[in-house]
């Protein structure tokens, strides 16, 4: 079966019959972010186009941003995605603020900062993102505070609570945490959007993730946005894998 080049925003992308073979639930799609952990922008754009029927958000991490820079954000925005820039900013406040201002001009919908950097640094990131977006005439991104990486085998309750409270007090609109951490972080920072990586369908390999959850378990725990990468992108049939994840998410929110 031939694979089509992505079409302009609003049109059909990927395999011509993709939406007919795997009808996607629009509500589920809004809760799914595709992690494009690739070092080639053309390959990332092509893969994103194939999987766009099931993902409204495309995540640009260190690998793709290091390879393609701001072009990665622009290309995916032009393709119709909300773009999640996941660079986990962590440096002195002045440096983070300036970097965040530059990122804010790109039109990303989400951007991460690591809460381990402290309140002044996180606030600098939030302020910088807002300034950059305003200068470019863009809506400000949701600044998402990273609490504890899902590759860490443990996340202490006190640490999670402190970092969630810090994110809320410093201008973040969301939090990144494992599904198992949501009871703590949602209580400590109610109202913040919760972003959960480490999503693995039942029976899938954990890879380097220590604290994983199935799509259904993450939704049941209160996740707002599920980040899915290798479980779909490395699958033998990425479209079928994406459809299965989306169906599980739709059932959870149904």
Can you give keywords for this protein?
alpha/beta, TIM Barrel, eight-stranded parallel β-barrel, 15% strand, disordered N terminus
Descriptive notes:
The protein is of the alpha/beta class and 254 residues long. The protein has 12 helices and 8 strands. It has one domain (23-253): TIM Barrel (Alpha-Beta Barrel). Helices cover 44% and strands 15% of the residues. An 8-stranded parallel β-barrel has the order 1-2-3-4-5-6-7-8, surrounded by 7 helices. Helix 6 packs parallel to helix 7 (119-135), helix 8 (157-169) packs parallel to helix 9 (182-188) and helix 10 (215-221) packs parallel to helix 12 (238-253). The longest helix is centred in the middle third of the chain and has 17 residues, at 119-135.
Blueprint (SSEs and pairs):
Layout (H helix, E strand, L loop, with lengths): L17 H4 L4 H5 L1 E4 L5 H11 L5 E4 L1 H7 L1 H9 L3 E8 L3 H12 L5 E5 L4 H17 L6 E5 L10 H13 L4 E3 L5 H7 L4 E4 L18 H7 L3 E4 L1 H4 L4 H16 L1
Task: Briefly characterize the structure.
The chain is α/β, with parallel strands linked by helices. It has twelve helices and eight strands. 52% of the residues are buried.
Rg over alpha carbons: 17 Å
What is the topology, as strand order, of the major beta sheet?
1-2-3-4-5-6-7-8
> What gap, in angstroms, lies between the N and C termini?
33 Å
Q: What percentage of residues falls in helices of 4 or more residues?
A: 40-55%
CATH superfamily: Aldolase class I
Summarize the helix and strand pattern as letters.
Answer: HHEHEHHEHEHEHEHEHEHH
Q: Which fold does the CATH topology refer to? A: TIM Barrel
Summed over residues and divided by their number, the pLDDT gives a mean of: 88
CATH architecture: Alpha-Beta Barrel
